[in-house]
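Colleagues,

For the teaching module next term, I've prepared a clean inverse folding example: a structure given as tokens, and then the sequence designed for it. I'd like students to try predicting residues themselves before seeing the answer, so please don't circulate the second half yet.
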């Protein structure tokens, strides 16, 4: 490669390019993601916010709990602004550097015209050298060196030819490759310090950081719960399969997250020796004398007393136990979720016959009940109306008077405005307005259940041992939709009238829920409503057979009737021919329409599978709706549990699905294996809230389990000799783990 010279860039000029590109790659995304912004609040949401004393106090506590937020935002802004200033300086320096290296014009430096004579060049050089000489007051060493180089380039013939040909008096320039590091790094005087810095970073700091991260990560589960805490849950839930609610609270309070040895956030004070025993005396049925470990440890008894005081809404010392309450209660929701997962794992292990004791469905439901109790600071037997602000035990008598028996928040929301105001007549208008804001934002969830057997010819028919897929659709609305106010009814009437007028203008007299289909498609069966669901039939059954003029029916008649029908056809006029052609067309259209319906169903299933896969790849969000919980120390989002169980056998059929992103609508699939014995079974689909008390729902589903087809079992290629283990397993499994409502007649014996 002629004219090229590979050398090290000792000046370190490329370092500025590296630093410039590095700053650009860091500053642009950092400015976009980390620049502090004030959250924009929707005016409608601000109007719905509660201004009760509990919520105002909670906001102040949340602000006080983050005193570092202001200085942190200031440091972030200062760092980002400093980075952009440094980027501007580097950009200017690099631009000047490129200009000096790329724009060397000796005529411009000597300030003479192109093609000047030697005398003019010497005269201009003497004149400028007097001004730019370093010994003069107006001298500039850098400019004087450029002036000298320009004079030599124009007076020396070889240098002048090189400049005219290559743009450089020294001839063709060498291609230099430089490393993007400052020049002082490769200097001999600094080599020891550079090697020491490399050793400190890569041999000391990096192993320590990785080791610390690894040591901390192996101590926690995926939900950031200590593994020792999870093992303790497994032990106690396996020891006590049918666990009462207070026992669940004892297990929760023994979590190692509340121990100072495992969690540095926990504070232990000398005053606890006096305050905790006094608090225990005020709390009945605390079971503080339990001898089981770690239930008898000091941290567990303290956490248990604080949880009981929280559920009783007892005021605590704001400088000591109240701080501990905020720390302990904030950790309870995700610990309860870990308890639910632990019980579910034990149930699955019991089904697999790896453990003998099977936890009951009541145990896992007691764990779920505890979560809304913690969030709302209420015992299970307390009235759900205490979740509303300003409502106390004295106000509850108005809900259960002789005239009215209001037992739930949903019933209270369905009352007319005058009746609701009459119930809360002892409250002021401002207090009543806050109550209605909180009640209006509470959830009203309607869930639909659909059972089917995927990847089967007849998805509505359940056979013994088949995998049943239950699709649960949740539709979440605000409780304000149930308000019985006249204003709401008028708004709905106006909306309905507007839709009706639009339908008249467009000439569409059909209802809104009926969707028109093209004329060449057969009308689909009703979607989702009871009484309109029809089982899919085979193509032959969907053919409509008309009177005896149809050739399909003629084939089934005797020979004499066939002859008569042939004579009738020959004697018939053109109208009968037209009718027969119409009948043929109708049968063809029915065949086409039935095939189109099957294709539509398959296409819908395929689209649903794609939608579920995309949703699974995207991951589930944990933002839904904020919960009104003034006694809970942190912001809480609405989460739900849904599962299927058998109430008669007290067994859990599916793992509880944790719904964390129910904003407007959410669908989930629960799968379980159908019973091995034919019969009619009743299962229950449950929906439980982890934030509110009194919002649990359940729906019963009936499965008519049929006998499995005999073609597979009687096929010769599937006949194997049963081993002794298989025979014993069959003998053990003669009894079904489910209970039936009805049994077929052929199995009564």
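(Answer key — instructors only)
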């Amino acid at each position: 490669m002629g004219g090229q010279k590979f050398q090290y860039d000792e000046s370190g000029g490329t370092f500025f390019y590296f630093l410039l590109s590095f700053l650009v790659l860091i500053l642009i995304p950092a400015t976009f993601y980390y620049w502090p912004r004030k959250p924009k609040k929707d005016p409608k949401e601000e109007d719905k916010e509660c201004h009760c004393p509990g919520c105002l106090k909670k906001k102040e506590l949340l602000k006080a709990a983050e005193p570092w937020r202001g200085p942190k935002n200031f440091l972030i802004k200062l760092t980002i602004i400093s980075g952009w200033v440094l980027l501007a300086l580097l950009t200017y320096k690099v631009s000047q550097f490129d200009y000096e290296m790329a724009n060397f014009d000796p005529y411009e430096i000597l300030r003479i015209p192109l093609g000047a004579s030697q005398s003019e060049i010497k005269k201009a050089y003497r004149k400028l050298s007097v001004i730019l000489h370093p010994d003069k007051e107006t001298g500039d060493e850098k400019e004087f060196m450029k002036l000298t180089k320009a004079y030599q380039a124009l007076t020396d013939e070889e240098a002048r030819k090189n400049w005219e040909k290559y743009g450089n008096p020294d001839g063709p320039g060498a291609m230099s490759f430089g490393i993007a590091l400052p020049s002082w790094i490769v200097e001999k005087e600094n080599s020891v310090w550079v090697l020491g810095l490399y050793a400190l970073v890569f041999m000391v700091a990096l192993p320590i950081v990785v080791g610390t991260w690894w040591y901390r990560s192996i101590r926690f589960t995926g939900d950031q719960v200590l593994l020792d805490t999870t093992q303790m849950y497994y032990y106690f839930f396996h020891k006590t399969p049918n666990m009462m609610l207070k026992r669940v609270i004892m297990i929760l309070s023994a979590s190692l997250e509340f121990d100072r040895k495992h969690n540095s956030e926990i504070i232990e004070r000398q005053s606890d020796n006096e305050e905790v025993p006094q608090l225990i005396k005020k709390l009945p049925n605390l079971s503080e004398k339990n001898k089981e470990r770690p239930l008898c440890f000091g941290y567990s008894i303290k956490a248990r007393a604080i949880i009981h005081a929280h559920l009783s809404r007892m005021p605590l010392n704001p400088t000591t136990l109240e701080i501990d309450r905020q720390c302990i209660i904030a950790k309870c929701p995700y610990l309860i979720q870990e308890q639910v997962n632990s019980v579910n794992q034990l149930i699955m292990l019991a089904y697999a016959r790896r453990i003998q004791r099977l936890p009951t469905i009541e145990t896992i439901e007691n764990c779920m009940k505890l979560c809304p109790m913690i969030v709302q600071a209420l015992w299970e037997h307390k009235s759900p109306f205490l979740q509303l602000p300003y409502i106390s035990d004295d106000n509850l008598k108005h809900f259960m008077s002789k005239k009215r028996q209001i037992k739930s928040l949903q019933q209270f929301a369905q009352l007319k405005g005058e009746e609701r105001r009459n119930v809360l007549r002892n409250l002021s208008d401002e207090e009543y307005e806050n109550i209605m804001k909180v009640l209006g934002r509470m959830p009203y969830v309607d869930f639909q259940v659909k059972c089917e057997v995927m990847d089967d010819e007849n998805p509505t028919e359940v056979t013994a041992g088949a995998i049943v897929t239950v699709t649960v659709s949740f539709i979440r609305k605000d409780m304000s939709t149930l308000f019985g106010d006249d204003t709401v009814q008028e708004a709905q009437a106006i909306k309905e009238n507007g839709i009706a007028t639009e339908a008249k203008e467009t000439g569409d007299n059909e209802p809104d829920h009926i969707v028109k289909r093209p004329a060449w498609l057969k009308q689909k069966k009703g979607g989702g409503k009871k009484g309109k669901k029809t089982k899919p039939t085979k193509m032959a059954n969907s053919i409509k057979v008309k009177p005896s003029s149809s050739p399909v029916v003629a084939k089934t008649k005797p020979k004499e009737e066939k002859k008569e029908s042939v004579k009738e056809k020959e004697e018939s006029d053109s109208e009968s021919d037209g009718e027969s052609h119409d009948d043929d067309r109708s049968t063809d259209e029915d065949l086409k329409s039935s095939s189109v319906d099957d294709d539509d169903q398959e296409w819908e299933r395929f689209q649903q599978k794609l939608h579920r896969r995309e949703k699974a790849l995207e991951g589930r969000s944990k933002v839904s709706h904020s919960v009104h919980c003034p006694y809970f120390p942190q912001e809480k989002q609405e989460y739900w549990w849904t599962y299927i169980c058998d109430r008669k056998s007290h067994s859990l059929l599916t793992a509880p699905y944790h719904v964390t992103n129910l904003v407007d609508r959410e669908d989930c699939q629960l799968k379980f294996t159908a019973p091995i014995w034919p019969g009619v079974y009743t299962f229950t689909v449950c929906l439980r809230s982890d934030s509110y008390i009194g919002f649990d729902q359940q729906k019963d589903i009936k499965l008519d389990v049929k006998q499995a087809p005999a073609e597979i079992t009687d096929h010769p290629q599937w006949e194997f000799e049963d081993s002794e283990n298989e025979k014993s397993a069959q003998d053990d499994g003669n009894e079904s783990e489910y209970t039936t409502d009805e049994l077929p007649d052929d199995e009564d014996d």
